[in-house]
Every structure is written in structure tokens, then in C-alpha cells.
Amino acid sequence: MARRALTTTAATLTATAALLLTACGGGDSQSGGINRADSGSSSPSVSASPSSAAPEVKRPVIKLPSSFQLPFESWTSSDPVEQAVLNDGKEQLRAGYEAIIENDPDSKNRAFYDTKTGFLQSQRWIRTYTDKNLTVIGKLPVFDPKVTLAKDKAAASLSYCTDESKASTKNRKTGEVKGNPSGTDPEVLYVISMGKNNQGVWQAVSAHSERGSCAR
């Protein structure tokens, strides 16, 4: 698959991003979504279980219901720093969908994995669902992860693809279920600019998405 070169600093990735179901409440390919954090900023502390990336830091416990599956395919690296980026990037995405499902745009779990700027973007994305009484259901595979580290290993780009073909939105009040319109490419590429805070947590600063740029 053709893929443009990833940058290794947060400053060059300045865009908001949609996460899921562009036509079903997620906005267009540049509406609020997975977001990133400046390497020097910190996030609210949350009582949680430790992560393998940084055992000394307590991470939030992210819980998703069985009605929404978010499988991560081949989400591993032999490089420990890259694996730490993958681990926190994974939980950042899971926390976003947890916030949508729990109808909580102010989610502390999501804030843990965002910088202040990144979390403002996250809130806008989450509210594109919650303001319309929408939740998410189905299955959203996340695949083809790639990490590019800055030379100082304090910033990184994380890219991955999602497949929306089996995911839908559901109206909390009416129960109406909608998927992407016919003819919409279900695969979306995300490039996430990430920075490591002083606790060692990789946080989202900004993100860019592009529909139709993935291929299995």
C-alpha cells in the first residue's frame, strides 16, 4: 500500500482527526478524533492498573462492552520503546470508545492518554457522538501498526488502519442502527503524533486521518 512518510515530531502533524464511521456521527476525515500530547506535558492522574510499558505508572482500567469489539492485530514490536508507544496508543484509542459508549466526553481515562491540547480535540470527537445520543456497536479491527521514533525517543508517530465494515452507530433513544453509506471505503488510515510525558506515558498530541489509504 502506498503510504506517505511519517514525521517524527508532533509539530508537523497538526490536524484533528475522525476515528470511526465518517458518515455516522464521526464527521469528515479531519474532524475531532485520536489526539496527541506534547512530550513535556502531563495528564490527570487516574487510579488504575499498571502497564507493561511503564510498570511504575498506574494506568486506567479501560472497559469495553461485548457489544463493541476493538481487536488489535499484530500490535507488537521487538523494540521496547516502540512497544511502549503501541501499548499507550492502543489504550488511548480504547479509552476514546469507552468514553463514547459511557456517554462521557470528559472521560478521565481518555484524558490520561492525551495532552491538554489533545484532550480538547478528543472531547470534540466524542461529542460528535454523545451530542447526537449515539453509541457504537459491532467490530472495528485495528491493524497494520507502524511506529517511527524521533532521534531522542521522546516523540513518535504512530500509524494504523481501521476497518469500519462491521461497525455501526446506534441511537440510544430510538435504537436506530446505521453503518457507512454504500460505496464508502471502510478502511481508514490514522497517523498519530505522540509525545512522552514526565511520567513515561505516551500521550496523543494530534492526529490525521485519510479514508481509503489502507489495504489488507
TrEMBL record:
Region of interest (Disordered), ranges: 30-58, 165-184
Coiled coil: none
Keywords: Signal
Signal sequence residues: 1-17
Statement: the UniProt record of this protein carries the keyword Signal: yes
Start-end of Low complexity biased regions: 39-55
Top-level taxon: Bacteria
Name of protein: Lipoprotein
Protein source organism: Streptomyces coeruleorubidus
